[in-house]
Amino acid sequence: MAAETKPEAQENPMRELQLKKLCINICVGESGDRLTRAAKVLEQLTGQTPCFSKARYTVRSFSIRRNEKIAVHCTVRGQKAEEILDRGLKVKEYELHRENFAESGNFGFGIDEHIDLGIKYDPSIGIYGMDFYVVMGRKGQRVAERKYKRSRVGAGHRIGKADSLKWFQQKYDGVLQSGKKVKKAPAKRRR
Fold it and tell me: How many CB atoms lie within 10 A of CB 67?
C-alpha cells in the first residue's frame, strides 16, 4: 500500500553504468618498423604514448621469440574514451554480436582498418586493424580495488552481461545480432 502512495521511485545514481576504461590493442606479430608505425597510429588516435607488449613464449612457426615486442596497446579513460568508442562503433554501424559481451559485463570488438576512424591515410604508415575492449563499471566498485579497508562488491551491484547489453542498446541505439551457429561434428561410429 505504501508503494502506491509513494511517487515513482527515482533511479539510484549509484546503479548507473559507466565506461570505466577503453583498451585499444594493435597486434603486429613482429618487432621492428611495422610495430613503431602501429605505435604512431595509436598515438594519433589517443593522444597518449602507447605501451609495447612482449611475446610470452617462442612460436617458431610464426617466427616469434620470447620477450620480443610484438604488439602495442593503450588504455584511455573519461571523455576521450567515450569519443573513441563512439567512432569505433560508428565503423561497426552500432551492430555487435551477443558473443562480443562477456559475463562480467565487459565487451570487445575489432575493426579492420584504422582509417575508418577518421585518421588520414599515410602511405608511409600503412593500414592497421585494432581491437577495442570496453571495461564497464559502477560507482562504488572502488571498495574492491582499494588498499585500505578492502571489501567485496555485493551481488546486486555487480555488472552482468544483461546490464551491458541494455546499456549498449539504450546509449548507442545498438543492434544486437545473434551469433553464428556452430555446427557440431557428426558423432563417430564405434565398431
Answer: 10
Cα distances (Å, whole numbers) of residue 116 to 8, 25, 69, 93? 44, 16, 26, 11
pLDDT of residue 15: 87
Please report which residue ranges of 64-144 form alpha helices under DSSP H.
Answer: 78-91
11 by Cβ neighbours in 10 Å (0-12 / 13-18 / 19+) ranks as exposed
Nearest CA among 115, 102, 136, 147 for reference residue 20: 136
pLDDT tens digits, residue range 37-77?
Answer: 989 989 988 999 999 988 888 888 888 888 888 899 999 99
pLDDT in tens, 20-41: 999 999 998 888 888 899 899 8
